[in-house]
Amino acid sequence: MKKALNITKNIIVWLIVAIAIFMAVFTIISVSTFNRNDRSIFGYKAYIVNSDSMAKTDFDAGDLIFAKEVDPRTLKEGDIITYISQNPDSFGETITHKIRKITKDAEGNPGFITYGTTTDTDDEVVVTYPYILGKYKNNIPKIGTFFNFLKTTPGYFTCIFIPFMMLIVYQGINFVKLFRRYKKEQMEELQSERDKLESERAENAKMLAELQALKAQFAEKQTAEAVQTNVEPAVVSDNTIENKDSSTSN
User: Fold this and answer.
1) Do 84 and 100 contact (CB within 8 A), yes or no?
2) Burial environment of residue 35 by CB neighbours within 10 A (0 to 12, 13 to 18, 19 or more)
3) Quick check: pTM over 0.70?
4) Which DSSP string corresponds to 60-93?
């Protein structure tokens, strides 16, 4: 059970890490790439759809679309193009509409009449070649909605700040646990060294006591032998005197 809980905890942690990293990378790439006419990846430009003018047939507001750089001369009726609008009500905005007809503007420049499939109404101004950014290729639903949410304060806190804070807090808790474990192991090692020293001291004291006891015994033995050696000559001397006296009497 404990092993399963640890595995589950590690999976959750790595999932949070992956989400936080993905959000950070996605934010960097999206900010530097989405809706940027001067940026492309392998010839593709990415745009977030802001209206439902093409929702009837191709993509909705909030979708992320990709337009590939193309030679305007190869475009034909029915193609969907991304261009910089010259219409008075949307001047300078990036629009993605379908080509209804190939034509020329009032000055004779080649271009296209475009329209949104939802309203089926032609755009006012002919789209000429210099304002064409690319040909629509594909889309990812609702990524633009998510990116727009990510740019808001709640989105930033929910998707980036909170996951990173959770990771930081988790790592902080692990650091504290490791530090406490390290200190505990240090204290246990220090106590073990102290116990070892105390044991060695006790052993040395015991050996010293035994040596002192042996020394005392040896000293007693030497004293006893010395006393015995001094007494024996005196006894011999008395016997000699007695024998001498007996000889004299005889």
Assistant:
1) no
2) middle
3) no
4) -TT-EEEEE---GGG--TT-EEEEE--SGGGTT-
| 3-class secondary structure, 15 | helix
Task: Tell me the per-residue pLDDT of 189-238, one tens digit each, with 9 for 90 and over.
Answer: 888 888 888 888 888 888 988 888 888 888 888 887 777 776 655 554 55
Question: Quick one: which of 71, 180, 76 has its CA closest to 133?
Answer: 71
Q: Where are the alpha helices (DSSP H) in the chain?
A: 2-33, 143-150, 153-156, 162-249
Note the maximum CA span of the chain.
182
Please state, in angstroms and as integers, the Cα–Cα distance from residue 8 to each residue in 12, 26, 104, 171, 189, following that order: 6, 26, 65, 16, 33
The secondary structure of residue 41, as a DSSP letter, is B
Half-sphere exposure in the Cβ direction for 30 (13 Å, CA): 18
pLDDT digits (tens, 9 = 90+) for 113-137: 999 999 999 999 999 999 999 999 9
* The predicted structure's pLDDT at residue 61: 93
Q: Tokens 């930081």: give the residue.
A: 168
